[in-house]
Every structure is written in C-alpha cells, then in structure tokens.
Design brief:
The longest helix has 25 residues. It contains eleven helices and no strands. The chain has 216 residues and is an all-alpha fold. The mean pLDDT is 89. The protein is 76% helix and 0% strand.
C-alpha cells in the first residue's frame, strides 16, 4: 500500500474511533489531528473537511456490505433478492448497533451522501430489473430511489431523536414496497417474504465481523 493510502487509512480509522465514542457532530478536526499525530493542514490535503471523511467511510463500508451479502451462498443468484437482503442487513445494523444507529442519523442530512446512496440504489435496482426483463424508465427509477433513500434516512433520524428502537423487519417491509412498485403486487409481496425468510438463515453476526469496523 502506498504511503498516501496508509495516511488516508490512518485518518479515517482514527476519525471513526472518535465518532464512535462521542458522535460525528462533537468530533472536531483538532481532535482528529491530535489522535492521528498529523497536522490539520496535512489532514486537509487528503480530506477537505470532516464531512468528506465521514462520507468516505460510509461509502467503503456500505459497498463492502453489499459485496458480502451478494456473495452469500444462501441467497439465490437473483440480483433483486440480493438487493433486498442488503437493505434488510442495513436496517438490521441500525436496529442492533447503537453506534451505527447514531451515525446513520447523523448522515441523514448530508446531501452528498444521500445523493450517492440514491445513485447506488438506482444502479442496483436497474440491474435487478434488467435481469428480470422488467422495463423501467431511468428517470422514474431515479425518483423512486430518491424517495426511498430520503424517506428511510429521514425515518431513521426521527426515530433516533425520539429514542425509539427500530424493528428491522417492520422497517424493511414498510419502505421496500415503494422501491419495487414496478413488480406485480403479488410478486412484490412474494419477493418481500422470500427475502425475509432467506435473511433469517444467514449468519448475520459473522457478516458483521467481516466488515472489520468497531461497532460497539
């Protein structure tokens, strides 16, 4: 690994440790500088602002999570089922890990991150529909994904503020219908139930450990 990559990794790792302890909003670049032993100016060379570090961490971990779910032998070679199980997995992480719950709540107002999530879901869903031979309009799909992403992250933020515990199965079932509305209603319901049944057979905590992050 190149020196620049090692420095970026060190910065993101130390930043993650700090936000796990005290939250994203309470973590300053000065604290990060002290934890890393790297000047704020040098950190700024790699990341312009702390938002950039947080977005980078989220992108890496969420992409890694999707890959882990996609490789699960228990899930049939069906892109839509893989996507649905990935979404359940994200809700599961939020419901079972206080640190992740808080971080997702913190990111619910970050437009750069939400835009990336929307684009990513649009790509995954388009590929899944293409595999099934379902005709879709790209712009309409983008609008659906935007509604889904902003709706789910807004919901998680509100529940976090209220101090509520999220039920990952109910949350998934509540929001997923909008995302897969291009399917026949009965087929949609069948996919939802099938995805939930498959998810219950996965070694979830083993997958979590493979993400290689301190979840607390």
């Amino acid at each position: 690994m190149k020196k620049s990559e090692l420095v970026r990794e060190k910065i993101s790792n130390e930043f993650y440790k700090l936000i796990c302890k005290q939250g994203y909003h309470k973590t300053s670049m000065r604290q990060l500088s002290e934890a890393c032993g790297i000047s704020k100016g040098h950190i700024g060379f790699y990341y312009g602002k702390k938002e950039d570090i947080m977005v980078s961490i989220c992108k890496i971990q969420l992409s890694k999570a999707y890959k882990l779910i996609s490789l699960c032998a228990e899930i049939p070679d069906d892109k839509l089922l893989k996507l649905l199980n990935y979404i359940i997995f994200v809700f599961y992480m939020v419901s079972k890990r206080k640190v992740i719950y808080r971080l997702v709540s913190d990111m619910s107002t970050n437009n750069e991150f939400l835009k990336w999530r929307t684009e990513t879901f649009c790509k995954y869903l388009y590929e899944a529909y293409l595999e099934r031979g379902v005709e879709t309009d790209v712009d309409e799909l983008s609008n659906l994904c935007t509604f889904f992403v902003y709706g789910t992250y807004g919901y998680i933020h509100e529940e976090y503020i209220r101090g509520n515990i999220i039920n990952y199965c109910n949350s998934f079932s509540m929001f997923i219908r909008t995302l897969i509305m291009h399917l026949d209603p009965l087929e949609s319901l069948d996919y939802i139930n099938k995805a939930l049944r498959i998810f219950e057979t996965l070694e979830i905590e083993k997958l979590v450990s493979q993400l290689e992050i301190e979840l607390g």
